[in-house]
Amino acid sequence: MDRTFGNALILVVVFELALTAVLFAFTDPLLTLFGATQTAWVYARTYYRIVSRSGACFRGSHSSSATSCACPVIRCSACSSRASAR
């Protein structure tokens, strides 16, 4: 079981790094695809880069136990916000 968790953790880290690299490589085409206007382009690009960099913790934080272990604060705050919405 320990080996399975280690392999899963490494796979999640590698996948997140690859996804972040792809997101950075295609910043302008993706912003165009999402419909960013010339007026909001600077703000959209700044926001996109922040989310792309820090997104490794946010993406999959509820679907992957390996990422959840790496980001317990985010996971707990998301759970508490869902509980308060009920």
Task: Summarize it.
By secondary structure, the protein is an all-alpha fold. 81% of the residues lie in helices and 0% in strands.
Question: Care to describe what's here?
Answer:
By secondary structure, this protein is mainly alpha-helical. The chain has one domain. 81% of the residues lie in helices and 0% in strands. It is built from 5 helices and no strands. Helix 1 packs antiparallel against helix 3. The radius of gyration is 16 Å and the shape is elongated. About 21% of the residues have low confidence.
List keywords for this structure.
single chain, 86 residues, mainly alpha, 5 helices, 81% helix, elongated
Q: Return residue spans where pLDDT drops below 50 for at least 5 consecutive residues.
A: 61-78
Shape: elongated
Query: Share of helix among residues?
Result: over 70%
End-to-end separation in angstroms reads: 36 Å
Q: What percent of residues are in strands?
A: under 5%
| SSE class | mainly alpha
Query: How would you spell out the order of helices and strands?
Result: HHHHH
Taking the sheet with the most strands, its summary is:
none
